[in-house]
Specification:
Distance between the termini of chain B: 52 Å
CATH superfamily of the largest domain in chain A: P-loop containing nucleotide triphosphate hydrolases
Number of helices of chain A: 8
Family (chain A): Belongs to the ABC transporter superfamily. Spermidine/putrescine importer (TC 3.A.1.11.1) family.
Helix content of chain A: 10-25%
CATH topology of the largest domain in chain A: Rossmann fold
Subunit structure (chain A): The complex is composed of two ATP-binding proteins (PotA), two transmembrane proteins (PotB and PotC) and a solute-binding protein (PotD).
Radius of gyration of chain B: 27 Å
Pfam families (chain A): ABC_tran, TOBE_2
Largest sheet of chain B: 2 strands, antiparallel
Number of helices of chain B: 13
Radius of gyration of chain A: 25 Å
CATH class of the largest domain in chain A: Alpha Beta
Catalytic activity (chain A): ATP + H2O + polyamine-[polyamine-binding protein]Side 1 = ADP + phosphate + polyamineSide 2 + [polyamine-binding protein]Side 1
CATH architecture of the largest domain in chain A: 3-Layer(aba) Sandwich
EC number (chain A): 7.6.2.11
Shape of chain B: globular
Distance between the termini of chain A: 43 Å
Helix content of chain B: over 70%
Structural class of chain A: alpha+beta
Shape of chain A: globular
Strand content of chain A: 35-45%
Oligomer: heterodimer
Largest interface: A-B, 27 and 19 residues
């Protein structure tokens, strides 16, 4: 294995629908056995991309390779990939077992083998006792598992999942996230997972491609995407983020100083080449900001502010403060101490100082 | 309104008085109720009378002279009627078979997206549904006459009206009904199931027979039953397009009624009513039945 094989390779893939561009010139390489997520808001082209890999749509230009083989216009039924649909798309006139067996029937595998494998597949998703039921008689979560078993029984090279957990309630979704991840690791199948839920993508993926308006903005591991976003959109879409616009004053050892229109100076780590006079934006995540009461702390990135709103959400307290120039700023504090003392919590109107370390804030393109 | 509320008060159990709106029916509601009563009277009284008199012992007249099954007995012994029934069934059966096949295929074609004439064809298919029977009948008669003349002039073939012209005519109007009914069940069909089947390795042919057809099956059967009923009940089109000697139940009844309304006619009509109602109800039930 000198040359690495890619489970899926997209080479300058573009898809247009009657003049509107759904996918713009995307090139991606997805490794064998990888859990790869396509993450973006609705309408960003992630589902279209998935449908092209599945063979339901053909690219307007560009090439798709699956396991090194050029797909061209190979129809869906002759591709070694299977899909778990958002709506599950279970066949309503067949039992659960018949649904799961469908793919093997199409391959003319003998009946005895089919029966054994259907049983294994249903056991894997903990639905061993439900083979005779109709899909309608199952809950949403159970239908989801049937759809998963129906796809996985074919042992595809690549499993495509189109927002499969979107219809489930929060608790079930969390359970299924862990279960999907463990199944994927056990079977070693490449998963391509489409989602608009950034937390879901961060939890499950080996790598994530963040998409917007048909383009891939950034590809990377969850930590890279979250801690080193390359653009303002990525920083904003993944998690929460505060932004401060300004003009570059100085660059020193990777630390970039910005001056806002109001004349305030902030310092952050430069993420792209900048020179004095450039416009840029400082991005800092709310959990990396500290609030200080009383004495003004020393150092850079210190602002006097007034607490405007406090939301206690259990594990954290989310505080919105207002900076001197009037802009709101999010700060999250972990509730590391168990107490009912009201003095331990901020209330609206409290005067505070907002501060963060230079290495915790990034300077991005505006 | 506020005045009504304030004027009328009743005592509640707890002794407090509460305002009550005065109940009165507006004249519009009265008029509509009266109208509804008239409509149902006009619709059903003749039918009820017909069914009642098919059990009336009196041979002539409108006097009730006791209950009898005599007319039904005579009916079953009547060979001419038996022949007419057989002819009706032959026409209904074959025209249903042909119309269901063509109509289903038409519905499948109309469902495919993105071809230019789709909307036009879709609308054009409704024409036989809304056109008066007699216009349909006359145009078919005109068509056959013209076609026969052309055949004779061009290839010297002598064609004549017969059973087959009635069947073709029934196919012509039944196609529309089948297409509409099957089209409805196709509209309820989830296209993603086709993608799911293809994704699992099914060819388009396998996808159709294993997924699509079983799921639209009740619609196709419903269309067929409706078509069978319409064919069985048709008089006007049959009357215009039949050849000599072709006699269906409806034309037979018409022939007899020209002489007099006999209790026997009442009995045939009652049976036809029963058969049609059963078929239509079954057809609706088939269409409504959900799979799974």
């Amino acid at each position: 294995m000198n040359t690495p094989t890619w489970a899926v390779e997209l080479d300058h893939v573009t898809k247009e629908f009657r003049g509107s561009v759904a996918v713009r010139d995307i090139s991606l390489k997805i490794a064998d056995g990888e859990f790869f997520s396509l993450l973006g808001p609705s309408g960003c082209g992630k589902t279209t991309l998935l449908r092209m890999i599945a063979g339901f749509e053909n690219p307007s230009s560009g090439d798709i390779y699956i396991e090194g083989v050029l797909m061209g216009e190979t129809p869906a039924n002759r591709r070694d990939v299977n899909t778990v649909f958002q709506s599950y798309a279970l066949f309503p006139h067949m039992s659960v077992a018949e649904n799961v067996a469908f793919g093997l029937h199409m391959k003319n595998i003998n009946k005895a083998d089919i029966a054994t494998r259907v049983k294994q597949a249903l056991d894997m998703v903990q639905l061993g006792a439900f083979g005779d039921r109709r899909p309608k008689q199952l809950s949403g979560g159970q239908q989801q598992r049937v759809a998963l078993a129906r796809a996985l029984i074919n042992e595809p090279e690549v499993l495509l999942l189109d927002e499969p957990l979107a219809a489930l309630d929060l608790k079930l979704r969390k359970e299924m996230q862990l279960e999907l991840k463990s199944i994927q690791q056990r079977l070693g199948i490449t998963f391509i997972f489409v989602t608009h839920d950034q937390e879901e993508a961060l939890t499950m993926s080996d790598r994530i491609a963040v998409m917007e308006l048909g383009k891939v903005l950034q590809v990377g591991q969850p930590t890279e995407i979250y801690e080193r976003p390359k653009t303002r959109f990525v920083a904003d879409f993944i998690g929460e983020c505060n932004f401060i616009d300004g003009t570059v004053l100085a660059v020193e050892n990777g630390a970039v100083t910005l001056e806002t229109d109001g004349g305030v100076r902030v310092v952050g780590t430069g993420m792209f080449p900048v020179a004095a006079g450039d416009h840029a934006v400082l991005a800092v995540r709310p959990e990396k900001v500290r609030l200080v009461e009383g004495q003004q702390p020393q150092g850079t990135n210190v602002f006097a502010a007034i607490v405007e709103r406090v939301a206690y959400i259990g594990s954290d307290t989310r505080i919105i403060v207002r900076l001197p120039d009037g802009s709101p700023f999010d700060v999250w504090e972990a509730n590391t101490v168990s107490t009912l003392d009201p003095n331990q919590y901020y209330t609206a109107g409290d005067p505070v100082y907002v501060t963060w370390a230079t290495q915790n804030s990034l300077i991005l393109e505006r | 309104m506020a005045k009504i509320l304030a004027d009328k008060r009743i005592e509640t159990k707890h002794g407090r008085s509460r305002p009550v709106a005065k109940r009165h029916m507006p004249w519009g509601t009265w008029a509509l109720t009266l109208n509804a009563i008239f409509v149902y009277t006009f619709l059903y009284v003749p039918i009820i009378v017909l069914v009642l008199f098919s059990f009336n012992a009196a041979k002539v007249g409108s006097q009730w002279q006791g209950f009898t099954l005599q007319w039904y007995n005579e009916l079953f012994a009547d060979a001419r009627l038996g022949d007419a029934l057989w002819t009706s069934l032959k026409i209904a059966g074959s025209s249903t078979l042909i119309a269901t096949t063509i109509g289903t295929l038409a519905a499948l074609a109309l469902e495919k997206r993105g071809w230019w004439g789709r909307k036009t064809f879709d609308t054009a298919l409704y024409l036989p549904v809304i056109i008066p029977d007699v216009v349909m009948a006359v145009s078919l008669l005109g068509f056959f006459t013209l076609a026969f003349r052309q055949f004779q002039a061009l290839i010297g073939l002598n064609l004549a009206m017969g059973l087959w012209t009635v069947i073709i005519s029934h196919v012509a109007f039944n196609i529309s009904f089948v297409t509409v009914v099957v089209g409805t069940s196709l509209a309820n069909f989830d296209r993603r199931l086709e993608e799911a089947a293809a994704d699992l390795g099914a060819t388009p042919w396998q996808t159709f027979w294993r997924i699509k057809f079983p799921l639209i099956g009740p619609g196709v059967l419903g269309g067929a039953l409706l078509s069978f009923t319409l064919s069985l009940d048709d008089f006007v089109v049959t009357f215009f397009t039949r050849g000599p000697g072709v006699n269906t139940l409806t034309t037979e009844v018409y022939g007899r009624i020209k002489k007099s309304i006999s209790p026997e006619i009442n009995a045939i009509s009652s049976l036809m009513l029963l058969a049609s109602t059963t078929l239509v109800v079954t057809s609706l039930w088939m269409q409504r039945r959900r799979q799974g």
